[in-house]
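Lab notebook, entry 833. We have the chain sequence and a SMILES string for C2E, and the next step in the workflow is to get a structural model of the bound complex before anyone spends time on docking refinements. Request logged below.

Task: model protein plus C2E, output structure tokens.
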Amino acid sequence: MFRVFSCLTVEHDFRLVVLAGLVCFVASIVAVSIFHRAIAARARTRLIWIAIAGAAIGYGIWATHFVAMLAYEPGVTTGYGIVLTALSLATAMLLTSGGFGVAVGDSGRWRAAAGGVIIGGGIASMHYLGMWALEVPGRVAWSLDLIFVSIILGMCLGYAALAVAIRYQNYRGTLAAAVLLTLAIVSHHFTAMGAVQIMPDPTRATGALSLSPAVLALAIAGVALSVLGMSLIGVLADRRLASRTAKFEEIISQLSDARQQLEDSQQELQDQTVRLDTAINHMVEGLCMFDAEKRLVVCNERYARLYRLPPELLRTGTSHTDIIRHRIVKGILTGDSSEGAAEQFISKLAALPFDAVSSRIDEFADGRLIRVTRQPMTGGGWVATHLDVTEQRRSEAKITHMAQHDALTDLPNRVLLRERMEHAIAVTRNGGLDLAVLMLDLDRFKEVNDTLGHPAGDSLLRAVAARLRECTTETALIARLGGDEFAVIDYVTNPAVEAAALAENIRKALCEPFDLGDHRVTVGTSIGIAIAPRDGNDSDVIMKSADLALYSAKSGGRGAFRFFEPELDELMHARRNLERDMRDALAGRQFELHYQPFVSAATGKTIGFEALLRWHHPQRGLVLPSEFIPLAEETGLIVPLGEWVLRTACAEAAKWPAYVRIAINLSPAQFRSTELVPVVVGALASSGIAPHRLELEVTETVIMHDSDAVFAVLAQLRELGVRIALDDFGTGYSSLSFLQRFPFDKVKIDRSFVGELSSARAEAHHLARAVVRFAVSLGKTTTAEGVETKEQLDILREEGCAETQGYYFSRPMPASDIATMLREDSGAAIRAA
Ligand SMILES: Nc1nc2c(ncn2[C@@H]2O[C@@H]3COP(=O)(O)O[C@H]4[C@@H](O)[C@H](n5cnc6c(=O)[nH]c(N)nc65)O[C@@H]4COP(=O)(O)O[C@H]3[C@H]2O)c(=O)[nH]1
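Result returned:
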């Protein structure tokens, strides 16, 4: 080590040592940079870069050596053999190229080590060949250990330089690797120089082909620096070029990506276009789009088919007017299909604004209805859909018709009537015209329905509707309100005359018999008339007025018409009050039963009592059944009231002797309630009277309402053991048929006939007697009602009537009088005898 140090400090010119180090460092930077290029390159380019790197460092080692040799002052004049000098250069280049070549390969971690060894070998070869070329007049002695150390230093530092160069390929890596490589070369050189000792020997002469060291060294340093500088510039330029190339490649790659994306987008666009085409061509609606210049942009197949557009009109750019002209001239739309009409339509269309959403229905000549909905687009133009709404419109019209018409007669129903009436009443408010509102219902419709069945009832209603159409003018509106209720409204200028004439026409028309196939029936009608605005100026009020007039017409005897009068309103008011009072009466125990005895015609003995309702009104006093029973039936109050009668009368009868019967009146509404049989059973059970003591009186009116159902209930009651009596016999025309259909226990001859028995009018007397005789001949128990005189009683006895009832025996009495009456019964019997 000391030898090396003294060699460096004593035998070398330090300035030239620095120059040698500089040359070496520059060469190292160049070589490492080129080596990095070689790593980045492939195949042949890599080989070229390796060769250049080897040449650069080989040249650098060689130049360093000779510059350092210039600094060497061994004390004798030196020269260099040209051949060996050249050979040392070639060896350095070749071996360092080999070292770089090995190190640059991809095969494992040993590459830097192997490369370092070879480069170290290259440095040593160059040095010792160079020393061999040294021609001095003296003897050269070598120190083998330092030779060995110099070789190891070159190899180890060479390895370190390569390892760093491979690992760090940036500027810092380059610098570090260059420093290590410089150290490898320089440390080798000066260690090797420490190993040499030159002993002057003037007998030894230098060769003729020797180069002067100073010349050689300076020339080498100059050339080396310039070559290395150029190489460095080349490398840096190449780096920049490489970085630009990289950037360029990156741009190319980005462009290629962009191109790929563009191609993908184009494909996607194409796919979307196909999808869109498929979608618009499968739309239910016809679709078309026009631009701001009213030229066709796109349309679908449905649109083309709808208007039978030929291919030349389907091209993009076809003008809207050409398409419109085609639609009209080809007669696709209803109306005039001439060219003139088309032009007229087109100019009308041109005047229309195109910048608002619009919707219209076009009617096609073949009857189809197309809804055209137009939607403006931003930037001008519009898109329009054309939907065939024929079926939808038909269904809507059908539904509307069904909602406003009666299914059986196809007449307007209450809903439409109200709508039209509101409109008509509004017309009457302008003055000049009045509106006659006729409300009518059929007399005896229920009878037809019950006796001939519902199909016959339906046929009758249809026939009535047809007759109403025939006997009214075209301005009249006929409506069916439900059941057998109809209404007719019409404008009139003189209500008293025209409305009366219309009502009379209708009355007459409906009085005529109806032929219902197997049956011929006569019904008749009652009509109520109200006039708007006189009797009300809204549809509800006027309908109510007509209804009141109808009610009045019916209660005044059927088959008539009545005009509304304000008093009717009062009547209805009174009815409503009565109804309310009746409900209170039921709760407030204002009802009472009176009992009228019926007696045996033969013995004069009381055999039963008929229960008759009395109402003690707190303000009006005693109210008779004829006043409240019809209203109780209408309102349904008769059901709870009848139940009360049944329970009370049976309970009262339980106090009487067992041979005394109790007769109770039943009304139609009680039969419609399903509770009748259970109520009767309950009354019998709670009173404990025997069923045969109970007589239930039914009138023909009861039976006429749904006779089958009534007969079924009567049969159940009779099975219980209860006696059934037919009341008011002789007043109805169908009594006979009822008597055939049901085994009544008793027939009660109406008091109107009994009264005529003592009549001075022979005809009435004969008729009354015939009725009594007929009743008796039926073989049922016969009771004569309303016996007021001894004469009547005698005739009834003569005709064989079994039982009698009337004021002649007793008026209806409170329950409290019955016990006394029964005690005096023997007296009554004596009187009868
Ligand atoms: N002029 C005259 N009249 C006589 C004579 N004898 C009896 N009368 C009256 O004739 C009616 C007989 O009852 P109706 O024919 O069943 O006729 C009854 C019956 O249909 C009905 N009614 C009475 N009470 C009830 C009831 O509790 N339930 C039901 N559903 N109807 C009842 O009211 C109708 C009238 O009953 P009332 O006013 O009590 O009138 C009773 C009675 O007072 C007489 O000699 N001369």
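Notes for the group: Residues 596, 611-613, 624-626, 629, 642, 645, 665-667, 697, 727, 751, 785-788, 806-807, 812 surround C2E (CB under 6 Å). Worth checking against the assay data. The two ends are 183 Å apart (CA to CA).
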